[in-house]
């Protein structure tokens, strides 16, 4: 494939991705020529090939290595070049945010689909591994926080998060500024990360549940997950995954004092408890009620030993409280004991 054609096709993708206008074509071509040493001749280009932007980028990088062997020697030089090329497919943050907001007004699903599409074509989603804790940071740590706002578009060698193509969405929860981006560790799955702008560690509190409720109100197609293990350098994040309807169960019990809310538990399998309510202010109270059952037996539970998954059903909010695999055996014992006590409380069938 000829260099001119590759550049033409790549620029077409860049214009399609929304960051540029047709009038920017010559400018973008010249920019790519600068970077890669590939000269554009005007006679043979107009047919767009079926190659993806990523494939086109790879061809340009290979051509650049030949044309500018002195400039691109190390792996890092090449990685930087690749990201600079892919960044041309990525509108500036303000434009991404404006486009996201416009789509969000029509449908949150459409907006997140847009962000996923953009992150896929610009190569931000490069893949990685997921552990039972959630997402593992597989890149070398350089002291730069992968979530902090100030690092948007920063290049860090080897980092899955800190790339020139990183873009995130600004949102407001309880007058706190938050960010939302996709996890680059998932290549073929849309996994959202929600994080406060302030570099801070989140604890399970009433305020956090409020913020999770706001998130599922906005992103009704996400289940929002809190775990104390989800943080980088002490900067916590919540994980948003597409709601799995199989996890939304029919709760049939009630708890004393919370007769308007429904409740379920599962002693056979995961030892989870499930709270379903249309009164979000009750979620925190119900969790406290459950956790305080063992107090008179002097067998305490730590809220941080648990994972919390909030989603919205057609009528209610559903919170799954699940003891973490990594909790101590003592905590696990206390939790089983709590479930026994709970069983006695739940004699009222819904
Ligand atoms: Zn941070």
From TrEMBL:
Pathway(s) it belongs to: Carbohydrate metabolism; galactose metabolism
Q: Mind listing the GO molecular function terms for this protein?
A: UDP-glucose:hexose-1-phosphate uridylyltransferase activity
Catalysed conversion reaction: alpha-D-galactose 1-phosphate + UDP-alpha-D-glucose = alpha-D-glucose 1-phosphate + UDP-alpha-D-galactose
GO (cellular component) term, any one: cytoplasm
Question: Which InterPro entries does the record associate with it?
Answer: GalP_uridyl_Trfase_II
* Gene Ontology biological process terms, A to Z: galactose metabolic process
Q: What is this protein called?
A: Galactose-1-phosphate uridylyltransferase
Q: Which organism is it from?
A: Vagococcus teuberi
Upper lineage ranks? Bacteria, Bacillati, Bacillota, Bacilli, Lactobacillales
